[in-house]
Amino acid sequence: VRIYSIRRLYVCKRFSCYSPERNRNFSRPSEAADDAVVYVHWPYCRRRCTYCNFNKYISASIDHDRMRRCLVRETETLLQQSGATKVNSVFFGGGTPNLALPGTMAAVLEVISQNALLPTDAEVTLEANPSSTETDKLREFKAAGINRLSLGIQTFSPADLKVLGRDHTVEDSLRAIQEGRALFPGRLSLDLIFGRPGQTVQAWQGELQQALSVCDDHISLYQLTLERGTALFTQVEHKHQTVPDPDTMADLYACARDMLHAAGFYQYEVSNFARNGAESSHNLAYWRGKQYIGVGPGAHGRFASRGGGQTLREARIQILEPQHWMREVDRLGHATAKRTVQSQLDILEELVMMGLRITEGLTNERWQQFSGGASLGDVFGTSQVVQGFVAAGLLEFSHSVLKATRSGMAVLDSIIPDLLLVTQDFYQRYTQGDPTGPQVSHRAE
Questions:
Q1: Which secondary structure element, helix H or strand E, spans residue 402, and what is its range?
Q2: In whole numbers, what is the pLDDT of the chain averaged over residues?
Q3: Which residues have a Cβ under 8 Å from the Cβ of 89 and sit 6 or more positions away?
Q4: For the whole prediction, is pTM greater than 0.85?
Q5: Strand partners, 90
Q6: Helix or strand or coil: residue 193?
Q7: For residue 229, is the peptide bond before it cis, meaning its omega torsion is within 30 degrees of 0?
Q8: Cα separation, 270 vs 379, whole angstroms
Q9: Which of 410, 416, 412, 415 is nearest to 251 (CA)?
C-alpha cells in the first residue's frame, strides 16, 4: 500500500489481543451485501522502480492470450463465489496495466457484465505510466471501457525521475496529461510522491504549482516509504541518498494540503484530493469497509462466499507468481492461495483503520452493521484516550461519527494504534463476561 500514513497500520496488528481460541464462541455478523467492487491486478512492468516492492514482474515476453483468458476465468469464478449481483466499480492496477492489451480489459468487463449488473456509469479506472509508447494506447483503452485514468507522474523533476528509476520523462508526463484530459475529462487523476531524496519545501512548491497548472480534478499524494529489499532502501542505508527528516516530511505534506486547498481541492482522504465531485468511488469503497473482489496474481479481497452458501466475510489472497497463478486458474478456475474467515474483531479493526482515513470518518451506521449492535458510543464514548484526542483537537466524536480533524489527519499514525487498543479492550471485556461489552448478533450488511 502506497498511501501516506498507512505504513504503521500493519504493525498495529501485533497489539491485537485476538486469538481464534478466545473468540471461538463469537457470533459474527453475516455479510448480506449484493454489491461489490472488483480490483484486477496486472503483474508486469517494463522495469522495477528503485522504491517499489509491489508484486510485479519484469518479463521480456508476455503471453497476452493466456493472461486474458485467466483473468476472465478468475473474475467469473470469484464473482460467482461472492454471489454479488452488482459491481459498482472496477479498478485495473499493477504493475503497469497499460502494458496489457486493451482487449484484455474489454474481456474482463464483458464477463463482469455477464455475471452481475455493471451500471453504464460505473467507474472503471486504469492505472497507467505516462511513457510515450503507452500513452499512444489510451484511446484504445477508452474504447475498451475505461472511463477514468490514474497517471503515475510521481515527480516533475527530471533528476528525481532518475533517482526513482522511472522510465518516462517530464515531457512524457505533460503529453500524457494532455491526452488524458482530452479523453477522460473530469476523470483524470495524477499521482505524486513526496519525501524524495534531497527534496526541499521550496522545490516541492514549484512542482505542485506545475501540477496545478496542468492537472484535472483529482490528485493523490504519496509519501515515499523506504521498503527493505528495494534499490532505494539500499542507497539510503549506505548513505548514497538522504531522505528528508520527519519535520521536513511534515512540512512537505502541510505545504501540499495548503496549496491544493487554495486551488479548490477538497481533501477527502489522507492522500487524496478532489474538486468538482471527482472523488474515486472505487477507493472510497475500500475505506468505507465495503466488500471487494481481488482478481489476478497477488490480489487481495474481502467478501463472503455467498455463492457457496457462506455468509461470513473472508480475507483472500491470490497466488503471487504469474505462471503459478495461471496454472491454478487453468486447473481450478481461480488461484486463491489463502482464504481466512474474518473474526468480528478483525473487521472492526479494519473499519477503524480505514474509516479514520477519510474526512467523513467512521459512521455509527456503518459500524453497527458489523458490531452486532454495539454503537460507537458503547466502544469509544467513555474512553479517556478518545477524550484526550478530542481535547487535543485531533478527533471529533459524536453519537453518529468518529473522525479525524484536519490536524488529526496529519498524525493519524499516532492515533490509530490507540483506537485499536480501545476496540480490543472493549471486546476483551466482553469475552470475560463484562456486561458492558457488546450483545453480539447476526446482522446483514
A1: strand 401-404
A2: 89
A3: 37, 38, 122, 123, 124, 125, 281, 282, 285
A4: yes
A5: 38, 124
A6: strand
A7: no
A8: 24
A9: 410
